[in-house]
Fold this protein.
Amino acid sequence: MKQKLAFLLFVCTLTLGGCAIEPWVKPYERANLADPIMSFNRDPVSASYIHHVYDSREGARGAGIATGGGCGCN
């Protein structure tokens, strides 16, 4: 019984040790993540257009964060 409790305590200690308060991404490393090569989109111009069309359509229903009437005339 003591071995199981000790093992459980050991596993809990390791698990909580992984939740340290120290940030995983250092402030000086954030520039690497903001690099355009890290984007999920292959073509940022096309993705911007598709996002604009989506916002224009869904703005009338309020499904996104878009504002406006949904006519796409902005």
About this structure: The radius of gyration is 23 Å. The helical segments are 2-17, 30-33, 44-58. The chain has three helices and no strands. The first helix runs from residue 2 to 17.
